[in-house]
Amino acid sequence: MSKTTTSAPEGQEKGPEKGPEKGQDADQDLGAAGSQLSTAPREEAPNLPALGVIGWIRWFWRQLTSMRVALLLLLLLSLAAIPGSLIPQTGIDATKVEDFREQHTTLAPLYDKLGLFNVYSSVWFSAIYILLFVSLIGCIVPRTWQFVGQLRGRPPAAPKRLTRLPAHTTWRTGAKPEEVRQAALEIVKQRRFRAHVAGDAVAAEKGYLREAGNLAFHIALIVLLIAFGWGQLFKSEGNKLIVEGDGFANILSQYDDFKSGSLFHNDDLEPFSFDLENFTGTYETSGPNKGTPRVYQAELTYSEGAYGKERRTTVEVNEPLEVGDAKVYLVSHGYAPVVTVRDGKGEIVYQDAVPLLPLDGNVTSSGVVKVMDGYKNAKGKSEQLGFNLFFLPTYGGGTMLSQFPALVNPMLAVSAYHGDLGVNSGIPQSVYQLDKKHLKEFKDDKGELLKKQLKPGDTLTLPDGAGSITFEREVREWAGFQVVQEPGGGWALAGAVIAILGLSGSLFIQRRRVWVRATEGPDGVTVVEMAGLGRSESAKVPEELGELAAILYEKAPGAPDADDPSESPVPAEGSDHK
Amino acid sequence: MTLAAATNESLANLSNTLIYSAMAVYTLAFFAYIAEWLFGSRSKVARTAAALTPGKAGAQAGPAVTVQKAGGTAVLERPQVTVRAQAGARDVPDGPGAHGGTEKGDLYGRIAISLTVLAFLLEFGGVLARALSVERAPWGNMYEFNITFSTVAVGTYLVLLALKKNVRWIGLFLITTVLLDLGLAVTVLYTASDQLVPALHSYWLYIHVSTAIFCGAVFYLAAVSTVLYLFRDSYENKLARGGKPGRFASSVLERLPAAASLDKFSYRINAAAFPLWTFTIVAGAIWAGDAWGRYWGWDPKEVWSFITWVAYACYLHARATAGWKGRKAAYLALAAFGCWLFNYYGVNIFVSGKHSYADVGLGALQAVGF
After folding, report:
1. What is the rounded CA–CA span in Å between residue A236 and residue A221?
2. Closest CA to B61 of B38, B93, B39, B32
3. Is B69's CB within 8 Å of A43's CB?
4. CA-to-CA distance for A166 and A541, rounded, in angstroms?
5. Which of A21, A97, A575 has the highest number of chain B CBs within 10 A, making it the mutation to test binding with B?
6. Above pLDDT 70, what percent of chain A?
7. Strands annotated E in chain B
8. Which of these, A378, A455, A392, A449, lies nearest to A415 by C-alpha position?
9. Cβ separation of A542 and B286 shorter than 8 Å?
10. Cβ-based contacts of A40 with chain B (< 8 Å)
């Protein structure tokens, strides 16, 4: 993350005693030596562009790819992401959005216009991240070329005055300058510096992985974004509720609900099928968290392809079944009491396990039975029957709320209707609700809606020989599965891994240069000068230089000092940089 | 009740006792740190003022001043490396620390650190006993998250101390918030020791949540340093302009490290934690892919970890951008930590999403940390 400038003047407003021009002086001293320690773009003062379309485009491009604008876009991105976490989102929970619309009749239309119910696919959010990524690409491409150039070139030659570098050391030695340079070259190369002899000095550089990591990180982010976008376009996601003993084949018509990305095609569905053999749910039986789920487990037999071999597997909450590109997740569960409906003659017109939808954590559930055909009333006329069911896996007496999520004391409350269910009108309707428009209530003795609480085995007899409904001594469980196919996951993961590695490289590796100059002094004794330069001020650079100097010093031991006190450093008063 | 359940119950009780004991010892450490600052205030050394006030000795020290490095002086048979301060950087010495160079202050400071070590061990034991009592990682709810968070924060501080890093000055500020954090944990957030809901049965819990806690703890240390940087920086600026800061401000800020050191400290920590935070989000995404059928779905917790990530990315970029480095970057760092904090408390308490594994009947406060 280092789109840094190396040569921008430092220390604006950093105290009156040092003018910025001093800092500039120092930088100019380094000349080419300090250049390109990073490939960061230079900060430019905003100039008024020359008139003309191309001039404007160029100005706009330069602005967009500047660090300052990238920073502002990043800030904007984080701000723009906030509303999506506070306002319900259609893509996450559509029912919550509907509730919100009902409660806030004035605010909701405004939110709609601003796209606040779909923040992450809204125009303005997209605009921000697209601009950000364009800015990123505009920054990365030139930097990559520059970096390739640096890799193909050699570390820059030593600056004239090594004393002006952040870390510096010098000594006099009896060894010949060429010997010193050769020894220094070997030492730095052993330490995996890229080095060469340029003139009277060895120039060495290390830590290229910093820039490589930096570039890899930013490129990986682009890969990640593209993989994510690709996945969203070709994604499919469907839900299916399956009662124990029933099965599912992965074709569109089998799903209860299904949504897909705009480029998804039905043929893309992975061919497989499975049966739900058994579902197990266990719950905490005591303590403050009584009723909290402990284990959810669905045992399946599945086969890949149209005629694949049958295999057994277990699907749990964190362990989906993977078939090809598709993953089958266990997302919900509930109960399906087995109910039998008989007509006035005692003949069975309906017998099935009825999946009911849970309403709370203790699986108080509700649903309906719809007897669509085969039933004739007492007068022998064809009619449809409807039953509202309310189910408590653990009835505690009193309130109509379940006391525990497991089947301890099941109770089924039934109310009965007859007439026209409205299923033939062509309008799709919920399988969990009755459309009571054309239904009449069965009445009890007092003339009120006929209803009864049934224990397993109990029967509610309908009045006037209209038949009966029985709660059989069997309650099956059902499991809700979500089948997701999202391509590009592998690319996204690869992008993420490279991003982390690159980021670590760019933040933990220090790019630095070392120069070793060996010249013959006026008195014939060789003067060795060593200097180090890092991209940022770091204690590591002088430490490393010290180690290198110590090794070189062994090979080129010190000679007696000449009378030259001017070169010795003056310690500053009270300064402790360690 | 089975034997195992009885053992677990006594372990859970032991954990609670240890956490309360740790709080008691932290409180003693807190007073010892206060004593250190109080005795340290008798120190009359004002090195910063000396270095920055115009007209006083040393004020003319330009950037050309060289400093001798320990690496050169420690070994005799070795050339000395001279270090030249970066051009334009203000050359201000670090303060002496809370004790202000006074012997008594230093004594209390050492007592405070010893107590902190003891409290840390107690708290660590508390977290461990909690983990053993529930036979899982102790990161299943906000209470467990809070006690682990402060343990990691204090542990990091002690490790840095052991590595002889200049961090002793952070002690009082750290322990104050550790006490707050633990107080919140045992009063508002307390949850009896318990197993996890099926959604949390995954080894990703160990990977994702542990790194999230660690990142939070070290981001916190960096945030403390950033706040102190802002104070210290304006103090130095005032001195450099020839102003006269208040006596209390001088007394406290004089003893802190130089603004540049504080800034560097927080930068290093943030920069080191940032890749780990990235990893936390990626690990969370992988887990989400296994648990919820999509690796990224703009769930509130995901959104806020993303915002936190972008905010820290802003900070790292800003620190390298002319016109933004310094105070502006520091404000960004604080905003980023604010995002992290909101992601933890705010999202858990005010926003419902897939990360709220609310316990039945106990409400949203019991929701899982991350």
Report:
1. 24
2. B93
3. no
4. 9
5. A575
6. 87
7. 66-68, 82-84
8. A449
9. no
10. 320
- On whether both B260 and B148 belong to a single domain, the answer is no
- Backbone phi, psi, residue A43, to 5°: -75, 130
**How long is chain A?**
578
User: Mean pLDDT over residues A469-476, rounded?
Assistant: 92
Query: Please, are residues A500 and A224 in contact by the beta-carbon 8 Å criterion?
Result: no
Q: Chain B: residue nearest A540 by CA?
A: B71
Tokens standing for residue A423: 């299923």
Provide the pLDDT confidence category of residue B75 given band limits of 50, 70 and 90: very low
Tell the burial category of B280 from Cβ atoms under 10 Å away from its Cβ (0-12, 13-18, 19+). buried
Work out the minimum CA distance from A373 to partner chain B, whole angstroms: 39
Whether the CB-CB separation of B151 and B128 falls below 8 Å is answered with: no
CA nearest neighbour of A70 among A4, A146, A10, A148: A4
Q: Check whether residue B309 and residue B347 sit in a common domain.
A: yes
Cβ atoms A542, A166 nearer than 8 A: yes
* B333 and B234 belong to one structural domain: yes
Helix (H) or strand (E) holding B218: helix B210-240
pLDDT higher than threshold 50 for residue A16: no
| Inter-residue contact B217 to B139 (CB < 8 Å) | no
Q: Which of B302, B281, B283, B311 is nearest to A119 (CA)?
A: B302
Look at residue B188 and tell me whether its pLDDT is greater than 90: no
Residue B76 domain-assigned?
Answer: no
Which of chain A's residues have a Cβ under 8 Å away from the Cβ of B289?
489
Chain B neighbors of A2, CB-CB under 8 A: 316, 320
Task: Give the domain range for residue B106.
Answer: 1-53+95-195
Tell me the β-bridge partners of A380. none
In this complex, which of B65, B293, B298 lies closest to A572 when CB atoms are compared? B65
Distance CA A501, CA A251 (A): 41
Give the closest of B87, B297, B313 to A10, CB-based. Answer: B87
Stretch A116-125: mean pLDDT: 89
Q: Indicate if B36 and B174 belong to the same structural domain.
A: yes
Average pLDDT of span A499-515: 92
Counted domains in chain B: 2
- Nearest residue of B to residue A571 by CA position? B67
Contact: A484, B82; criterion CB under 8 Å: no
Contact B65 A570 (CB under 8 A): yes
Helix (H, G, I), strand (E, B) or coil at A390: strand
CB pairs under 8 A between A and B: 275
What is the spatial distance between Cα B64 and Cα B55, in angstroms, rounded to a whole number? 19
Q: Does some domain include residue B25?
A: yes
ipTM of predicted complex: 0.83
Instruction: Please name the helix (run of DSSP H) or strand (run of DSSP E) that holds residue A281, with its range, or none.
Output: strand A272-283
